[in-house]
Amino acid sequence: MTFNILSILPILVLAGFGMLVLVVDVMSARKLGEKNLLAYLSLAGIVIAAIVSRNSTATTLFSFNETFTIDNYALFFNILFLLSTGLVILISHSYIKREDINHGEYYALLMFSTIGMMLMASGADLLNIFIGLEVMSISIYILTGFKRSKLISNEASLKYFLLGAFATGFLLYGISLVYGTTGTIDLRQIASFVAGKGGVKDPLLLMGMGLIIVGLGFKVASVPFHAWVPDVYEGAPTAVTAFMSVGPKAAAFAAFMRIFLTAFGSSHYEWQKAIWILAVLTMTVGNVVAISQTNIKRMLAYSSIAHAGYLLVALVAANNMGVSGTLFYLLAYIFMNIGAFAIVIVLSQKGDVGMNIDDYAGLGFKHPMLAIAMTLFMFSMAGIPPMAGFVGKFYIFSAAIKSGYVGLAIIGVINSVISVYYYLRITVIMYMKEPVRDFHPLTISPLIVVAIAIAVVGTLHLGIFPSKVMEIAQRSILTLR
Amino acid sequence: MSVPILSLITFLPIIGVFFILSIETKRQELVRVTAMIISSVVFFISLPLYCGFDSRTSDMQFVEKLQWIPSFGIQYHIGIDGISLFLILLTTFITPLSILASWHITKHVKEYMIAMLVLETGMIGVFISLDMFLFYVFWELMLIPMYLLIGVWGGPRRIYAAVKFFVYTMAGSVFMLLAIIGLYFLNHRATGEYTFNLLEYYRLELSFAVQFWLFLAFAFAFAIKVPMFPFHTWLPDAHVEAPTAGSVILAGVLLKMGTYGFVRFCLPLFPEASRAFIPVISWMAITGIVYGALVSMVQDDLKKLVAYSSVSHLGFVMLGVFAFNVQGLEGGIIQMVNHGVSTGALFLVVGMLYERRHTRLIADFGGLTKQMPVFATLFLIVTLSSIGLPGLNGFVGEFLILVGAFKSRILYASIATSGIILAAVYMLWMFQRVMFQEITHEENKTLKDLNKRELVILIPFIVLIFWIGIYPNSFLRKMDVSVNHLLKQIGEKTHIVTNVYTQKKGEQSPANSDLKIDIVSDDKTVW
Known about the structure:
The structure holds two protein chains of two kinds.
Chain A: H1 9-27, H2 35-55, E1 61-63, E2 68-70, H3 72-98, H4 104-122, H5 126-144, H6 151-182, H7 187-197, H8 203-219, H9 228-235, H10 238-263, H11 268-291, H12 296-317, H13 320-347, H14 363-366, H15 368-382, H16 388-402, H17 406-432, H18 446-464, H19 467-476
Antiparallel strand pairs in A: 1-2
Helix pairs in contact in A: 1-2, 1-4, 2-3, 2-4, 3-4, 3-10, 3-13, 3-18, 3-19, 4-5, 4-10, 5-6, 5-10, 6-8, 6-9, 7-10, 8-10, 8-11, 9-10, 9-12, 10-12, 10-13, 11-12, 11-17, 12-13, 12-16, 12-17, 13-15, 13-16, 13-18, 13-19, 15-17, 15-18, 16-17, 16-18
Chain B: H1 5-21, H2 28-51, E1 61-69, E2 74-80, H3 82-100, H4 109-128, H5 132-141, H6 143-153, H7 158-191, H8 198-201, H9 208-225, H10 234-241, H11 244-269, H12 271-276, H13 278-297, H14 302-321, H15 326-357, H16 368-371, H17 373-387, H18 393-408, H19 410-435, H20 452-470, H21 473-489, H22 495-507, H23 515-526
Antiparallel strand pairs in B: 1-2
Helix pairs in contact in B: 1-2, 1-4, 2-3, 2-4, 3-4, 3-11, 3-15, 3-21, 4-5, 4-6, 5-7, 6-7, 7-9, 7-10, 9-11, 10-11, 10-14, 11-14, 11-15, 13-14, 13-19, 14-15, 14-18, 14-19, 15-17, 15-18, 15-20, 15-21, 17-19, 17-20, 18-19, 18-20, 18-23, 22-23
C-alpha cells in the first residue's frame, strides 16, 4: 500500500479552501462587504495549490495503490487547471456581483470542479478518471444553473445535466467492457494486455474503446456529441461559460490522451480512424456554424467546438509532437479564450444584455484598449502570427504532417481560413461600423483588468517566445508511455 | 557587421509605435510628425545597405542569426542579397512618402499611423527573412495592418474589400504553411537536422512529385498575392477602397511579395517543378497582361484603371521571372521596383485629384492642364513611365523582360508585347480625357495646383523614374551576381545569351557600361 500525502496535497489545499469559503460565507452572510474576501480567499487557495504542486515535481509519485499518479504530465495539467480557475475567479468577481449571484458556493464549486479535473489528469486507472470526471461535471452542472431566477440558466443546467449523465453512462459502460475483456482497470496493465494480444482484436474491447471515445467526446464537445454546447454556453452565467470552455475541455483531453496513449497506445491504428472522423467533423461543423451566429456567446461556443477539433487532430497524430502540441495549445487557448470572455463580461450589462455581436459596433475607438485586447484574442484564435494561437496550430499541424496525415492537415488549415471569417467579423464590427448604442460608462473592476492583462501577456508571450513553454510541454509527456 | 542594420530598420517602426501610443490622441499633428520622422529615419538607416552591399558575392549579407525556438530549430535568421536589396529600399522609400501623403487623414490619426508603422515592419521582415518560419510570421503579420487600413479608412465598400483581401491572402498562405512544414520534415529526413533555414533547404534534392506538390502550394500563395490572372479579383476591390497611402503601399510593396516569393522560394527550391510549370505560369502571366490591359481600357474610375494596369504589369514581371534567363530575371526584379515607383506615383496622383474633387471618375475631369500645369507635367512623366517610354524606368524593365522572354519562347513574348501597346492606349487615352480637352465641369475651373507637401511627395518618385530609366546599371550591377547565382541554382545552363553577356562584362571595365546596350547588340545576333 503506497500512500504519499505529497501527491494529493494540491487537491487537499483546494478542498480545504473550498470549504473555508463556504464557512466564511455563512459566518459573514449579512455583511455584503465581506463578499470580496471570498474571491481573495479562493485566489489564495489557487495560488497555494499551485505552489504546493510545484514543490512536488521531483519525480513521478504513485499513490493509493498506484491508482493515482503525479508525473510531469499531471503536473502540467494541474498548473493549467489552476491557471484557468484563477483567471475565471478574477473575471467572476465583478460579474457575479452584478448578476446578484454572489454566493460563496460559487467559488467553492469552482474549486471542487478543479479538484475533479486534477483527478482526471492524475488518474492511473479508469475508475479514478471516471470519479474525477464526475466530480468536475457535477460541480459544473450546478454552476451552469447558478442564475437560478433565470429560466435560460435553468434550462441550460438541466440540458447539460441530462445529456452529461447520458454521456457518463456511455463512458462507464465503456469502462466496464474494457474491464470485462482485459480483467483490469489499471491503464498500464491494459496496455500490456493489449500489447500481448498484438492490438485490440476483441470486438467487446473495441466497443469499450468506442464507448469511451463517445463519453470523452461529449466532454470535449466534439461533433456529433456537441448538441448541448451552444445552448449551455449561452444559458450559463458568462463567467461559468468561460470556465466550461477551457477547464473541462483540458481535463477531458488530459484523460483522453492518457487513456489512449498509455492504455491503447500500441493499437493506435484502431482508434485513429475514429478520431480522424471526429476531428474532421468537429472542425468543420464548429467553424461553418460559427459563421452564422449573431450572439457572441454562441459564436464562442461554436468556436470552442472548432478548437476541440484542432486538438483532436493532434490526438490523431499520436506522436510526441502532437501530445506536447496539445499541451501547448490548451495553454494558449486558456489565455485567448478566457481573455475573450473577460471582455464579453466587461461589455455586457446586468442580465447579460449586450451579447449580440452587433452591440460591439464602434467599440474600437470608444474603448481602444479593450478593442485591441479583443482583436488580439480573435486573431490569436484565428491562428494569425505573432499570437499564441498561431504557434499552437503550427505545432499541431506539424505533428499531423509528421505522422503522415497530410490530408487531415489540409482540412485543418482550410478550416482555419473559414474561422478567419467570423473572428474577423468581430474586428470589422468593432472598428469599421458606426456605434449603434452608447457604451454605458463601463465599471471595470481591477480584478478583471488583471485577468485581461494576464491573458494579453500570455497570448503574446506564447506567440513570440514560445520556446520555454514548448520545452516544458515536451518534458511533461515523457511519462505517458 | 557590428551594427545590426536589418534588425534596426525592421523593428524601429515597432518602437515608434510605442512613441506614438504615448502621445495624446488630440495632438494629431504631433502624431503625424512623429510617424514621419520615424519612417524617414528608417529610410536613412537603410541607405547603408545599398552603399555597403558587396556586389561581388551571391552570399547573403548583413546576416544576423539568433536562436529563437530551439526545440523546433527555428532561428531569427535574416540577411539580404541582390534580389531583396532593392525591395527593402523600395519599402523604406515608399513608407515615409505614403505617410506624408496621408496628412489629410483626420479620422483616428493615431491608429492610422500605428497601422502604417506595423505594416512597414511586416513588409521589411518578409524581404529579409531567411528562416521559413520567420518569413511566414512576417508574411501574415503584415495582413493585419493592411486589413485595418482598408477597412477603417477606406471607401464606401471598404469592409467587403478588406475582408476579401484578408481571406483571399490567408487562404493562399495556409497551404504555403503546410508546404513549409512539409519541407521541414523532408529536410530532416535528408539531413537528420530539424531546421527552417532557407539556405539549408536550397541544398535539398527533392523528387519531381514532391517538388510538384510543394511548388503548387507555394505558387498558390504567391499567385494570389501577385496577383496572377484568375486570382486577381481581390485586387481591384482592395485598391479602389483603400485610402491613397494604402493603395500606394499595396501596389508598391505588397504585390511584390508574391513575385519575390516566386524568385526567392519557388525557383531555387523546386527548379524542376518550376520548369514544368513554365507554360502554365507564362500563359497565366500573358492572360493577365492582355486581360488587365483590356479591362483597364474600359474603366471609368481612375483608381480601378490603375489597379487593373497593375495586373497587366505584374504579368510582365512573372513572364520575365519564368523566362529563366538573366535578362528575364533581372528585368523582372527591376520591374518590381519600377512598378512600385510608377504605380505608387500614379495612385498618389489619383489621390491628389480625389482630394480636390472627391471623385475619381474620368468623366468628371478634363482640361485640367490649364489649371494645374505643374501637376500635369508630373502626371505626364508618371504616365509615360508606366507606359514604358525609353529613358524612363518602365522601359528598362519591360525591355529586359521581353528580351528574356524572346530568348525562351518567342510566342509568349510576341503576345506579351501587345500589352505594351495596349498600355499606351489606355494610359494615354486616360491622360487625354483627364488633362486635355475642354473643361466641361465648372468645379474644375478653380482647382489649385500642387502644394509644397504634394511636390515633396512626388519629386522623389520622379527622380527615381529618371534615375532608373537613364542609368539602370546602378541597380542592375548590385543584383547581377545574385541573379546569376540563382540561375546556377536552378540548373539553367544559362544559354549562349548569358555567356555572351558575361563575356562582354568581362571585357569591359568594372565601371560597367549600360547593360541595355549589351543586350541590344547581343539580341540582334539571335533575331
